[in-house]
Write a structure and sequence with these properties.
Helices cover 39% and strands 20% of the residues. By secondary structure, it is an alpha+beta fold. The chain folds into 2 domains: 2-88; 108-348, 2-Layer Sandwich (BirA Bifunctional Protein, domain 2). The strands form 3 sheets. Strands 2-5-6-10-9-8-7 form a 7-stranded mixed β-sheet, sandwiched between helices. α1 runs antiparallel to α2 (22-33), α2 runs antiparallel to α4 and α5 (108-121) crosses α10 (318-326). It is elongated, with a radius of gyration of 35 Å.
Length: 349
């Protein structure tokens, strides 16, 4: 019986030597391991072997089957490798250099955020973070945004079903959750957690029900800042923003404050800049961010005395900065996961 099993192994190896394709390989396999194959027929004969010899026969049969399966596996690998080389039309040239060892890197938006954060850290700002799902109080009420404000419309903001109570300083009633529309809510949480003087920036992700196009996205990123201390003035605001924008876009940047309106600052401004080194936008005024002095009502909502404390706040889009720095004209590039785009702007870690 041992001789018969060894003969089948030799038969399999011999027949596979002349096999050149998968179809022939399947035919040889069927003659050995198929329902009517030679090894299968021997296995069926176990009933005619004395009981005391069956364990030894079974072990020998299993060893032979594993050996034959390894032979077939090795043969199939060789056939597939040969087919791949034929499809390529040439053999692998071992003298060619290996492909680039790309180890990955950070996303362009992450790089931009880190650059912005590093600038503010130079002048004493620290990073503050909070949850992306907020209550209406933190996202709107505490920022002096009334109930009839467009930002609180369901067409502009992503709401959740009201189902939780928040024990904030005003003991608000049951409220709805929202995906934060700005990172200004981090400012409120920071003022409740830490008393002034306070100097923070709050980079993070925000959400609005915007129709996606070249300049809008339902998911985007902001960096907002807050500085609260005694005797803070607009001059301090202008000085901080001028330093930041010159560090970001170069010493030749010009800036101006243009009157605007935000519920949580008074007075409020849009910040415009002009720079000679920002591509097709050079030498023209472009809007870059919003800012203003913290409204005394906002300070009162977090139990700070507006007669003692003053401050300023500002907010800037991270995508906006990245698009200006790199000459990108479509915000969707940041989210399409196009490897060519990402590697073009990537800085390997």
């Amino acid at each position: 019986m041992e001789k018969n099993l060894q003969a089948i192994v030799e038969e399999a190896a011999k027949n596979l030597d002349s096999v050149a394709n998968r179809a022939d390989w399947d035919n040889v396999k069927a003659t050995i391991l198929g329902p009517n194959g030679s090894l299968t027929q021997i296995a069926k004969g176990i009933g005619g072997i004395p009981k005391e010899d069956r364990p030894a026969f079974g072990q020998a049969l299993n060893r032979t089957k594993k050996e034959i399966e390894e032979i077939f596996k090795s043969s199939l690998t060789s056939i597939e490798q040969k087919a791949d080389l034929e499809a390529l039309g040439t053999e692998v040239d071992p003298t060619l250099p290996p492909p680039a060892n790309f180890t990955g890197g950070t996303h362009p938006l992450t790089n931009t955020r880190r650059k912005m954060v590093s600038i503010f850290r130079k002048i004493g700002f620290t990073v503050a973070e909070a949850t992306e799902a907020e209550t209406e109080w933190f996202c709107f009420d505490a920022l002096n945004t009334p109930e009839d404000h467009p930002a609180r419309d369901e067409q502009d903001t992503l709401f959740f079903t009201p189902e939780a109570k928040w024990n904030n300083i005003k003991q608000k009633k049951e409220e709805a959750y929202v995906l934060r529309t700005h990172t200004s809510s981090v400012q409120i949480r920071s003022l409740l957690r830490e008393k002034p003087p306070l100097r923070i920036i709050a980079p993070g992700r925000c959400f609005r029900r915007d129709t996606v196009d070249a300049t809008h996205s339902a998911n985007f990123h902001q960096t907002e800042g807050l500085y609260v201390d005694r005797k803070v003035t607009i001059k301090d605001l202008k000085g901080v923003l001028d330093f930041f924008l010159k560090e970001l876009f170069g010493d030749q940047v010009e800036t101006r404050l243009r009157p605007s309106f935000f519920p949580f600052t008074e007075p409020s401004f849009e910040v415009d800049l002009r720079a000679p080194n920002i591509g097709k936008l050079s030498d023209q005024w472009i809007e870059i961010m919003g800012c203003g002095m913290v409204d005394p009502k906002v300070l009162g909502l977090v139990e700070l005395d507006p007669e003692e404390w003053t401050g300023f706040a500002f907010g800037i889009g991270i995508e906006r900065v990245a698009m200006i720095l790199h000459g990108i004209d479509d915000i969707r590039h940041f989210y399409n996961n196009d490897f060519r785009f990402l590697t073009q702007l990537n800085q390997p870690t």
